[in-house]
Design a protein that fits this description.
single chain, about 425 residues, alpha/beta, six-stranded parallel β-sheet, 15 helices, 14 strands
Length: about 425
């Protein structure tokens, strides 16, 4: 089976989407499928095109036996929402043009965020008369309503809503990363209700695992993390769903403790919010580290005594299952989280940490204090989380689920096409 991936994110880009989609492409290729990836020139998270690719409209390369076609986009670091949308539009155009010369696949697999990438994928699928499967990792344009950029009466929102919903209706199948998002997509496209499946995020549980103490010590020394401190961490993209003011207020509560530090590893659109708060000078216990190399991420987790996060109290984010939940459990890091929805149910079921309502700063502080003081409880949560990840999040199990859907879609389309061709002979 020949599968065409159309995605905005792919290695060497960083971030959860790039990691997940790259891993999935490799897993499907290892199962004997031919994979072609149509993606951007490497640019994320810095939002600057990698120097090795600058000045090029398109690049064709092979990575681990997979043909990767890279197409140009306009991008700038620290861009506003309007400029990021423009960047996404440029990739939609360039990918649509570049994709025309690609051979016809059996099925097109589209990462449906950003929505403009989805438009390019759908156009190519239609032109090549191939079915497409949508991978819904976020809900757009719902997100723009939540952050206040648009409201439901805006013409731009109505157009975006119509475009996205048309994509839902035309799909052969839709895969969501959250049961809540599955329900929401079914509301927008009720005729697709029987063709929507939730598949959880998968992790490489061999690579993401508890790390040797000496390797963790080296990582801490490399990044100036005091080896005598217990480190409470936030790892991942600094994105709008996260309530950074609340999380940094939690860190401020521990500012007088010499044995505790807070480390933020990552970057993103909310970087300025974090930088501004740190600059006030009342949280000297907070360390900032930009993106670490992909190979070092297990060590970043290993350096974490506790992982914590708080999501903003918005209905849309009730469906969010942060990628850090999967990685933290795989690495055996106890969790303190404030949000609602399926993620909280998973943490409770796994018995891998403590959970609270989105605005419960006091509850988070007490939980962190309790975990810092109780190494036995930390060990219990660590072991529980690791066992749960092995049972539910292993990448091979997740890849099998994706492969099954893609194979069924391709086979169904082939059978349907054969019947159409044979009809005149009857």
């Amino acid at each position: 089976m020949h599968i065409l991936f159309v995605t905005h994110y792919y290695e060497p880009d960083s971030g959860a989407a790039a990691v997940q989609l790259t891993r999935l492409a490799k897993a499907l290729q290892a199962r004997g499928h031919k994979i072609t990836v149509l993606t951007t020139l490497p640019h994320y998270p810095q939002r600057e095109i990698d120097p090795a690719y600058r000045g090029k409209f398109t690049v064709s390369e092979e990575r681990d036996g997979i043909r990767v076609i890279r197409s140009w986009l306009w991008t700038r670091p620290g861009a506003s929402i309007a400029k990021r949308l423009l960047s996404q539009l440029t990739f939609m155009v360039s990918a649509s043009v570049r994709g025309l010369s690609l051979p016809r696949p059996d099925v097109v697999f589209i990462e449906y965020q950003p929505i403009f990438t989805g438009v390019a994928g759908r156009l190519l699928a239609d032109l090549k008369r191939a079915p497409y499967v949508l991978d819904v990792s976020d809900l757009w344009p719902d997100h723009l309503l939540t952050v206040g950029v648009l409201d439901e009466t805006d013409t731009v929102y109505k157009i975006a809503r119509a475009v996205v919903d048309a994509g839902y209706r035309g799909a052969a199948h839709i895969i969501t990363l959250s049961p809540t998002w599955q329900e929401k997509v079914a509301q927008y496209a009720p005729q697709m209700s029987d063709d929507i499946t939730t598949i959880l995020y998968g992790v490489d549980t061999k690579r993401l695992s508890p790390q040797p103490a000496d390797a963790v010590a080296t990582f801490k020394a490399q990044h100036n993390l005091d080896p005598d401190k217990l480190w409470v961490s936030f790892l991942g993209t600094f994105s709008t769903p996260y309530n950074f003011p609340l999380m940094l207020d939690v860190a401020a509560h521990f500012a007088d403790r010499d044995d505790v530090g807070f480390v933020y590893i990552g970057a993103g659109t909310q970087q300025a919010v974090v930088d501004e708060r740190v600059a006030q000078g009342d949280i000297p216990n907070v360390r900032m580290i930009e993106w670490v190399e992909y190979e070092q991420m297990p060590l970043a987790w290993g350096a974490s005594t506790i992982i914590y996060w708080a999501l903003r109290d918005e209905p849309l984010y009730n469906g969010t299952i942060p990628a850090k939940l999967y990685e933290a459990t795989a690495c055996g890091v106890p969790i303190v989280a404030a949000q609602r929805g399926h993620a909280i149910d998973m943490i409770r079921e796994a018995q891998a940490g403590m959970v609270f309502e989105p605005q419960d700063k006091a509850g988070m502080i007490k939980a962190i204090e309790k975990l810092l003081a109780d190494p036995d409880l930390r060990r219990e949560y660590s072991e529980n989380g690791r066992a749960y990840a092995l049972a539910h999040f292993d990448k091979e199990v997740i890849a099998d689920q994706y492969a099954a859907i893609l194979e069924i879609v391709a086979q169904h389309h082939k059978a349907k096409s054969s019947k159409i061709k044979l009809a005149p002979m009857d």
